[in-house]
Each structure stands twice: as structure tokens, then as C-alpha cells.
Amino acid sequence: MSGREFFQKRYEQIGWKLKEVNLKQAIRVNQTYSKEKNLVNRLSGLGLHLEKIPFLNNGYWVLESRVSAGATAEYLLGYYSIQEAAAQIPVSLFSNLKGKKVLDVAAAPGGKTVQLSDLMENTGVIIALDVDKRRLNALGNHLERCHVANTVVYLLDARQVSTLKLKFDRILLDVPCSGNFVTDKNWFKNRTLKDIERNAKLQREILTKAIDCLADQGEIVYSTCSLEPEENEVNMDWAVKHLDLQIQEVDCYGNEGLTSVFGKQLDSSVRLCKRIWPGETQGFFVCKLRRSKKDESKGNY
Ligand SMILES: C[S@@+](CC[C@H](N)C(=O)[O-])C[C@H]1O[C@@H](n2cnc3c(N)ncnc32)[C@H](O)[C@@H]1O
Known about the structure:
globular; 28% helix; 2 domains; alpha/beta; nine-stranded mixed sheet; Alpha-Beta Plaits; 9 helices; binds S-adenosylmethionine; four-stranded antiparallel sheet; Rossmann fold
């Protein structure tokens, strides 16, 4: 059986039929430094035909373009970012970010760090970590282009985050994952179940270490661009059972999380997660978590 057939069969078992997807380019307006209406008019004058993405606050599809969206003066001035539509969802799930201490554990190349900073209106502080120095250079450029002034960047394995001895009000776990076939045309050829399981384990390790740094009343958003349940619902079921985390209801684009996976029944709260099958967007998974009430005192400063 080819890799494609293997994964296709798994998707069918969990209720989705594999189909080809042509990813639409999307941008996100950086509100702190640009006025959305003016920017859209300016870009339209340059030949970028935009359409508001109905399920996002500041996102637009690029329907047609006479110029590359990454080559306009407005882009170079940081008025907007090129950011895939589903990838704009995780950061939008945090409540009031202004003035908060925020941890971004796997931050490079920085699309979501910039979005965090924008929603924070450049207040508070973001600690952004990544283990890949080359990708951190890209993050640095991205932060500079978008005028981000509230972020400290560390070359650090997220599993060592406790060495910073800090507590955070918001933690973004956009964890390293296996990705999906929409953004990688060789995905089926290059991935095996072993890769999925290895990534799922790394994700659990990162989550375990990150929650030790969560302040009282703190919020976590966990996200992946993987379609594989082991990295998504199964890990969130594990977090509920082993880390005393509670899954929170969110109001965003996507389907309910799966509660029955390859014959295994998961905690019923896992349905509150959002699974986004490829279609209008790439594949994505998001889940908002808080410490369960009895555990809140662990997060004291
Ligand atoms: C999905 S990408 C992050 C995308 C990023 N959040 C964004 O919005 O641009 C995952 C990142 O995790 C990083 N990574 C892998 N293992 C890590 C670890 N143990 N600790 C911290 N970062 C890690 C990778 O280098 C990669 O940049």
C-alpha cells in the first residue's frame, strides 16, 4: 500500500474523503500600523483583488494580483502579513491580550508572533522561542518589518522553558508537527506513522513543560497544521487526563474535534476542539485550554 493510500484510508476511517486542494493566498492586516479600509483601497489600486475572509477579523483572500503580495511598499512597511487563513485562527482565540506576558514556544518564522504583538498593540511582552537558528533569522526580519517592539527572542528548546523562570498569562503552543499534504506536495511520500508518533510525543513533552509556566487564570492555545489525530485530539485527550487541563469552548471556523478515533473513545470535551479539514484553507487543528479549577494555585507568581 502506498503512503497516500495508507493515509487516505485513515482519513476515511475518521470521516473525511481525501481531495485535492488549491490553497488560496491570504493576508492579515496589521491593525496597529495600518487602517484596514485605506490599506485595502491602496492594494486594490495596485491590482491586488482582495476579498474579506468571512470567518476572520482582519484576513483577506488574495483573489487576483498584478503584483506579488510580498513585493509592495505596503508589505515592506509592515502594514500587512502574508498568512494562510487557518493559521490566523489560533492567536485569535486568546482573550484580552493587551499588556499580557505571552509565551510563543515554537515561534519561527513568526507569523503568529507578529499577530500576537498586533493584538497586544505592541504592549506587554512576548517571549518567542525556537530551536532553529536559521528560522529565527527569518523571525527577526519579520518582527522588524512589522515594527514589533515587545518581543524577546530566544534560541531555546521549548522543553527547557522553565530555565527562564517566568510565568505567562497566555501561552501559544503552535507546536512542531507533521504538516499536511496541502502545503507539501511530497507529504505522502515522506511521512510514515512513526513520524506522526514521534511528533505527537514531542508535542506532549512541550505541553507538559509549558504548563509549568502558566500563571493563574492563564490560557493556552494548542495548534498544529497536521491532520493526524495522534497529534491533535488524542494528545488533547491525554492532556485532559494527565495534565489536569480543561478544554474551553471556542467560537471559530472548523468542525468539532473527533471523540472516537480508530476505535478509541476520547474524553467527551475533546469535541470542543476545532478540526479544519483542507478545503477553503489548509488543514489545521486548534484547541484552547485552561488549568482545571483545582489546579489553579500551581500558577502563582
Ligand atoms: C509550526 S512551526 C511554527 C510556526 C510559527 N508559530 C509561525 O506562526 O510562524 C514549528 C516550529 O517549531 C520549531 N521547533 C521544533 N522543535 C522545537 C522545540 N523542541 N522547541 C522549540 N521549537 C521547536 C521548528 O523549528 C519550527 O520553527
